[in-house]
Amino acid sequence: MARTADPDRVARMRDRIMSGAADVFAMRGFEGASVADVARAAEVSPATVFYYFGDKATLFRSLFEQDIPKAEALVARYADADDAVRAIVDVVESLAKDATDPRAPALLIELLRRTGRDPELLDVVRRSASVIHEGLTTLIERGLESGQIDASLDARETASWLQSVVDAAYLNARPGHCPAPALRRTVLRYLAPENRGGP
Amino acid sequence: MARTADPDRVARMRDRIMSGAADVFAMRGFEGASVADVARAAEVSPATVFYYFGDKATLFRSLFEQDIPKAEALVARYADADDAVRAIVDVVESLAKDATDPRAPALLIELLRRTGRDPELLDVVRRSASVIHEGLTTLIERGLESGQIDASLDARETASWLQSVVDAAYLNARPGHCPAPALRRTVLRYLAPENRGGP
DNA sequence: GTCTATATTTAGATAGAC
DNA sequence: GTCTATCTAAATATAGAC
Question: Which of A31, B118, B126, B182 is deepest in the core (most CB within 10 A)?
Answer without folding.
Answer: B182
